[in-house]
Amino acid sequence: MKEHKKLQKLLELMVFLSSGIKYGLDEISDRFEMSERTARRYIQTFRDAGFIIPKPENGRYHIDKSSPYFKEISELLHFSKEEAVILQKAIHSVSDENLLKRNLVKKLYALYDFDRVADTLVKEKHSVNIHQLMQAIKYKNKVILCDYLSANSKQQKDRIVEPFDFTNNYIATWAYDIEAGCCKTFKNTRIASVQILPEPWEHKKEHKSLPMDVFRISSEEKIDIKLQLSIRATELLQEEYPLSEQYISQINSEQFVFEAPVSNFKGVGRFIMGLSDEIEIIYPQSLQEFIKNKAEKILAVTS
Known about the structure:
By secondary structure, this protein is of the alpha+beta class. The protein contains eleven helices and eleven strands. The chain has helices at 2-17, 25-32, 36-48, 70-77, 81-92, 99-111, 114-121, 124-139, 231-240, 265-274, 285-302; strands at 23-24, 60-61, 141-149, 156-166, 172-177, 182-187, 193-200, 223-230, 248-250, 255-262, 279-283. The protein has a five-stranded antiparallel sheet, covered by helices on one side. Strands 9-10-8-11 form a four-stranded antiparallel sheet. A two-stranded antiparallel ribbon has the order 1-2. The longest helix is centred in the last third of the chain and has 18 residues, at 285-302.
């Protein structure tokens, strides 16, 4: 198993160094979670195998194009500009929550440099903000999310945060919100621009990303729910929330069951209220009470 992991690291590092970009030992050790001494040893292994790795310029390494088999490796593992454009269009045609799309992203991460994966996955109008956030994460700096539009308050204002991770497919950024004193996700499409601050992170110990449920709500706690769905409700659930598919089972030709853990009732509640005559809540009782309270508030406003 140990040799298997070493071989995997060597192959990943080979792809990394053959991208045409030069990297310092610090970047290599950070990217592959190894010491600089180990990185040097791996580079020497490539040299011993016949790969040409020139003496580093300004401490930065790369595999020379004249190395044996470089062309074959490059053509096999790297996209041309035309291929990248086609791949980008294909990826954006798939729902952001599609499980296969998420697996593809993970595989691209294993082979390619962080920025290059982002260029393929992120739509052009958001790419500048994403790259700014990447730099802040890399160098552990605070940022200002300028004119961030909050879904709760419906107001735009600057947020000073410590970004530390992205959700799947760069839909949102995990960051420590200085004003709120806690970690939150910030939807990348709601950020007008990103300004990197010179101040370093101060709350690294509190940086923590949480798993999201199928309704895109994140929380440490999970509540088990069970719903009985009509054919129409089942189809709409899968279309709007593709990750729900794994939690759906068929009862008969006209009825289905959705049984899954959720972070809270907000996401699933919105879905149920939009199809209240197509869905039956099996459990928990507290979800039924949540929907009842929501309905009563709506009736109170409209009456």
